[in-house]
Design goal:
119 residues; mainly alpha; Arc Repressor Mutant, subunit A
């Protein structure tokens, strides 16, 4: 984040990017950071989610680590809740990783097919 950037503005942009992830889809922390205009700030996305007011009701469960991995500790209550919420939306998780539901045709961008088009 640039020194002159207002951290509150960055938080709001992250929260808006998280809120835009539709049901049944996931996005990585890095993709959310990029969508919020904060490339290479994936860890800041995690912090922003922790700081988000409950009243925003953000779909935090749709945000995963690189490669579709669950970022929460396996076996934790939060990990189980994330898997439960994703399952309700039709997203399958196997061994702590989101299972892609589509296969990329030759030459296709698998990331765009699985995670959705870039915003």
């Amino acid at each position: 984040m640039a020194a002159e950037e207002n951290p509150d503005s960055a938080l709001v942009r992250i929260w808006e990017a998280v809120a835009a992830v539709p049901p049944g889809r996931v996005a990585t922390y890095g993709a959310i950071a990029a969508a919020a205009g904060l490339p290479r700030r994936a860890r800041f996305v995690g912090r922003a989610l922790k700081l988000a007011p409950e009243r925003l009701r953000l779909p935090w469960h749709r945000i995963v680590a690189a490669g579709g991995r669950m970022a929460l500790p396996a076996g934790s209550a939060a990990h189980r809740e994330q898997v439960r919420r994703l399952a309700r939306e039709g997203v399958k998780v196997v061994r702590g990783r989101v299972v892609p539901t589509v296969a990329a045709p030759d030459g296709a961008d698998l990331d765009a097919l699985v995670w959705g088009p870039p915003r």
